[in-house]
User: Fold this.
Amino acid sequence: DTAVSQTPKYLVTQMGNDKSIKCEQNLGHDTMYWYKQDSKKFLKIMFSYNNKELIINETVPNRFSPKSPDKAHLNLHINSLELGDSAVYFCASSQDLDSGEQETQYFGPGTRLLVL
Amino acid sequence: QKEVEQNSGPLSVPEGAIASLNCTYSDRGSQSFFWYRQYSGKSPELIMSIYSNGDKEDGRFTAQLNKASQYVSLLIRDSQPSDSATYLCAVVRDMAKTSYDKVIFGPGTSLSVIP
Assistant:
């Protein structure tokens, strides 16, 4: 069984559209994350949730809105998509976020977003 | 200064050689350090974690941590072509005024092992 899953795997859309990416983890972890990896492969954290509570919100345009209906799910909605949003978006989870080994990140397969 | 820095590479080593990957970090209070491997088109996966000064060995991989000098390294012995990937250093930084930490990734080093 897949530990961290994301849908869709590929997303091609026009500028100005609104889209959502879904993420689910079946590891029983308390913390989930969204990362953006640009064309230079730099992996940057966008958001982090712990037990459905937003704990990290980096400098991300407010067109990006995460939502965690429960601790096993963290979705990402993007409004008014722009060319610069094209990237690979990774969802990840960790057991916790305040002690050592429990901070090991388990990544989903990624969603490749292309904005035309 | 970036919070976590790595040589971007590409680093090329012949098969069977030792590959040495380095990472420096700026926050002296960082406590947890991780090395992830990312194959092209795939997601990052954990190779090693290290929390105290010194060496930690796991098979062909050895992580080294020196908190005084604020660097962490990864050595890959007997490098194989299958080790060709991007290696990401991750440092966990204590967030002030919260009980949570923040994971910060370096830009990654691309390793190519030549048969």
About this structure: Chain A has a mean pLDDT of 91. Chain A has no helices and eleven strands.
